[in-house]
Amino acid sequence: MPSLPKPVRQRLANEFQFAATKIAEAGDIGMKTYYFSVFHGETARQLNVHWDADLALLWSVAQHLTNAVGARSAQAAGAFPLGGYPDGFLEAIDEISVEVAGAFDGVEVDVPRLHAALERTAALAFSTTGNGAYLVQKGTIKL
């Protein structure tokens, strides 16, 4: 990731830190998802100011998790056989949020930390699918 302009990085750092705090405080998946949407919403706004491929990746992966949680919630409400979310799902959202926010805290974005958080976010999103839930049960995907 080339260096982000300081105002863009600072704005993202501030918004992401606020979101991570609110996610940790939230007690249910609906509110956690609401605050998690900051990771793609604010990123999209900042992409209008400064294009960056890693920010676009963050936007895509964070938006995918938000959509996957919504789809799984709808399935669970319709008596989807797997029910809710795997054990550790809510805690994983908390931890990922802290990692994404932390990646933007320094003078430069910590790209390896960001990519590790995005990998975990993608796995978490996949765990909301039938095949993903199966892989979590098998122990192939660790949340």
Describe the structure.
Helix content is about 75%, strand content about 0%. The chain is mainly α. The longest helix has 25 residues, at about 55-75. The model has no long low-confidence stretch (mean pLDDT about 90).
Count of strand segments:
0
Distance between the termini: 26 Å
Count of discrete alpha- or pi-helical segments spanning 4 or more residues? 7
Strand content: under 5%
Helix percent band: over 70%
Which structural class should the secondary elements be placed in? mainly alpha
Mean pLDDT: 90
Largest sheet: none
Rg (CA only)? 15 Å
Which overall shape is indicated by the principal axes computed on the Cα atoms? globular
Short description:
The protein has helices spanning 6-25, 29-36, 38-49, 53-77, 89-103, 111-126, 130-138. It is mainly alpha-helical and 143 residues long.
